Amino acid sequence: MKKIYITRKIPEERIQPFSEKYAIEMWPHEHQPIDQDTLNRKIAEADGLLTLLTDPVNEETLSSASNLKVIANLAVGFDNIDITAAKKRNIIVTNTPNVLTETTADLTFALLLSTARRIVEAQKFVEEGKWENWSPYLLAGSDIYQKTIGIVGMGRIGEAVAKRAAGFGMKILYHNRSRKERAEKQLGVRYVEFDELLKTSDFVVCLVPFTPKTKRMFGAKAFHMMKQSAIFINVSRGQNVDEHALYHALVNGEIKGCGLDVFEQEPIKKDHPLLQLDQVVCLPHIGSASIATRTTMIDLCLENIDFVLSGLSPKTPV
């Protein structure tokens, strides 16, 4: 019987349809990541691996994977996996595109709204007993309606965010490695160069994948070019942002605020510098975290593994 190993505890009912066909074992913890030694040992026995974006599957790990045929990554991104090393060993890598687009776009816009209208700051204000009276500018935030949003990365999620922005009557700019004329016609978005987007947008949203070219693309120079009233949102990868530069841009008033779902090093600690600033909203990488979407992602991973181990082509190969 072929073996599948899962690097994080998932609901038993998701596994049950495959349990008669495969010997399935999983890491027994939901919130604690698998250690590298255990991963290396388990991967040596596995025919299929279901893994998370936080689990590094590198050359060293794959060197012991003599039976492994498929790695199913529970994410759209796959920068945790050494694709070259996998390809060299004829190991198929899959991800979970499409199924999390709308959920992540919802979270992106929720982060934009909560940062602009100071929702988290207002919650703390009430909890700490500071609300003693009303005043005209008490916790006054930024308007979203009819403002300009600049979307960096016009993929599926970028387009979904643009649709939501249109509902707020926003002017929508975008920058991408290639023009998306279909999106321009259907969504009314306008392509601009990166520098122009930074200079003219009231909200700058980062939705690019992590690559060597995008690494720290949002650094001191980028933040300096943005409006002092601008708000920066990142729901892509933490490595796309220089957090040291972002912190100084906020402290020095170069930009007004930011909302982050991802960080350079995750998880962050409670003494992280950005957490000390009132104008920052930080989330624990929950872009696709609705119950329905995460369940669909898990099912897609298991289906991809089943297809490959049954001699079929996977649904969503990288």
Describe the structure.
InterPro entries: D-isomer_2-hydroxyacid_DH, D-isomer_2_OHA_DH_cat_dom, D-isomer_DH_CS1, D-isomer_DH_NAD-bd, NAD(P)-bd_dom_sf. Belongs to the D-isomer specific 2-hydroxyacid dehydrogenase family. It comes from Aquibacillus salsiterrae. The protein has 318 residues and is α/β, with parallel strands linked by helices. The chain folds into two domains: 3-99 and 291-309, Rossmann fold (3-Layer(aba) Sandwich), CATH 3.40.50; 101-282, NAD(P)-binding Rossmann-like Domain (Rossmann fold, 3-Layer(aba) Sandwich), CATH 3.40.50.720. The chain has twelve helices and twelve strands. It has helices at residues 12-15, 36-43, 59-62, 83-88, 101-116, 119-127, 156-167, 181-187, 194-200, 220-225, 243-251, 291-309, and strands at 3-6, 23-26, 48-51, 70-73, 92-94, 148-152, 171-175, 190-191, 203-206, 231-234, 257-260, 280-282. It has a seven-stranded parallel beta sheet, sandwiched between helices. Strands 2-1-3-4-5 form a five-stranded parallel beta sheet. Helix 5 packs across helix 7. The longest helix has 19 residues, at 291-309. The protein is globular and about 70 Å long. The model has no long low-confidence stretch (mean pLDDT 96).
The biggest beta sheet reads: 7 strands, parallel
The total strand number stands at: 12
CATH class of the largest domain: Alpha Beta
What is the level-2 CATH architecture name of the largest domain?
3-Layer(aba) Sandwich
